[in-house]
UniProtKB/TrEMBL annotation:
Protein name: phosphoglycolate phosphatase
EC number: 3.1.3.18
Organism: Ahrensia marina
Enzyme class, first EC level, given as a word: hydrolase
GO BP annotations, alphabetical order: DNA repair
InterPro entries linked: HAD-like_hydrolase_sf, HAD-like_sf, HAD-SF_hydro_IA, HAD_sf, PGP-like_dom2
GO cellular component annotations of the record: cytosol
Length: 229
């Protein structure tokens, strides 16, 4: 049993049901360039990558498949529209408020979202109160997900250690980062973006257990930790 472990949550797709918005806009740009991709493949390959890596890979995919150089203006227009939609449509993942309210141990956020946007998301959804200053972005480390740097940085800042930290991640790259950090890593499939085969992808990436909802996470925590008392 874990003794008062540090809980490290990804943001998009775990706390906030926003990944589906990102994906819809990214697929729109791909389709406009005549590119169709397998959604499950795209999610596994791209989701949660550090921002510079993600951009290079996305632009590279369009160049490879369509022979088109996506301009900086086109890329920024996609990101701006995505941010507008998230601001207007943002909502939490079902059950997250009850789960966070039940925790009686340290908890923080470790997300690939840039720091200029990450706190705003948590404030808009009224989740910021659960984390205080424990909000960490890939901007803060040299190597973002799937490298372990962000998780190790978050644990150090929170006064925790890898052996007694639990990562909750919805992406293949996030799971790989959590495991590389030496942390117990839960694959979470409660977001709207979790297409068929998502659980299998997370398991193949090394997730120690797969949980489909925050109510299931609460049950798991009750059985395997003392985080609720």
């Amino acid at each position: 049993m874990f003794d008062k472990p540090l809980m490290i949550f990804d943001c998009d797709g775990v706390l906030i049901d926003s990944e589906i918005i990102y994906l819809e806009e990214e697929f729109r740009v791909l389709t406009s360039n005549g590119i169709e991709v397998d959604k499950a493949w795209f999610v596994a390959e791209f989701m949660a990558l550090a921002q510079p890596l993600w951009k290079d890979k996305f632009v590279g995919l369009i160049k490879e498949r369509a022979g088109v150089d996506l301009t900086e203006d086109e890329f920024e227009a996609m990101k701006a529209l995505t941010r507008e939609r998230i601001a207007a449509e943002i909502k939490t993942v079902d059950g997250v408020e009850d789960m966070l309210s039940a925790l009686r141990t340290k908890a923080c956020v470790a997300s690939s979202t840039q720091m200029q946007f990450l706190p705003k998301k948590l404030e808009r959804t009224k989740l910021a109160q659960h984390f205080g200053d424990g909000v960490y972005s890939g901007d803060m480390v040299q190597n973002g997900k799937p490298a372990p740097d962000l998780f190790l940085f978050a644990a150090k800042q929170m006064g925790g250690d890898a052996e007694n930290s639990i990562v909750i991640e919805d992406s293949v790259n996030g799971v790989r980062g959590g495991k590389a950090a030496g942390m117990y890593t839960i694959g979470f499939t409660g977001g709207s973006h979790c297409f068929e085969g998502h659980a299998e992808s997370l398991k193949a990436a090394g997730a120690d257990v797969i949980l489909p909802s925050h109510s299931a996470l609460l049950e798991w925590l009750a059985a395997n930790t003392n985080t609720l008392s």
